[in-house]
């Protein structure tokens, strides 16, 4: 194992074990390197790597701190990788979304209160054929975000949100070029919401799968 990898694992163990928690300041470099049995150079490289993936926050002149370790923050590195993908690779992103989002929607069954159901119903009613393509996509993103958030798994919702936000361009493209995009989207959203309101997890899963797969299939044919 490379010494830098070993250093990363040792810092990770300190966080996992609770010796270091969110917001904690790391001991001075010399003290930490001696405690972990590492050279200062390998420790320095490990800190740089963990800073890139937002586990550590290096504050010049102040010290190095463990970040909040919130899912949104930790998934930013993955978001950067997704940004580097070309148009064809977005099909792989849709494939992952097709696996995760229906499952998250099914998990939301029984967790949407009446106020949230009413808000989602109003969101659907606020969109019509006069809505711009950008407005439709914004509605689509927020509709699914509300449902996935209700599933109650912050890591899952952050992951799906990161994937979903990187499919915006493809969804706008579909809205511009495909007939009846507005009515189709609203019809499918209404079906998903009705299944959630009835507490039918299996149906909510199936309808969300069809909904996400529709965009993926259209993009596959367009490419």
TrEMBL record:
<keyword id="KW-0238">DNA-binding</keyword>
<dbReference type="Pfam" id="PF07729">
    <property type="entry name" value="FCD"/>
</dbReference>
<feature type="domain" description="HTH gntR-type">
    <location>
        <begin position="1"/>
        <end position="69"/>
    </location>
</feature>
<dbReference type="InterPro" id="IPR008920">
    <property type="entry name" value="TF_FadR/GntR_C"/>
</dbReference>
<protein>
    <submittedName>
        <fullName>GntR family transcriptional regulator</fullName>
    </submittedName>
</protein>
<keyword id="KW-0804">Transcription</keyword>
<dbReference type="InterPro" id="IPR011711">
    <property type="entry name" value="GntR_C"/>
</dbReference>
<dbReference type="InterPro" id="IPR036390">
    <property type="entry name" value="WH_DNA-bd_sf"/>
</dbReference>
<dbReference type="InterPro" id="IPR036388">
    <property type="entry name" value="WH-like_DNA-bd_sf"/>
</dbReference>
<dbReference type="Pfam" id="PF00392">
    <property type="entry name" value="GntR"/>
</dbReference>
<keyword id="KW-0805">Transcription regulation</keyword>
<dbReference type="InterPro" id="IPR000524">
    <property type="entry name" value="Tscrpt_reg_HTH_GntR"/>
</dbReference>
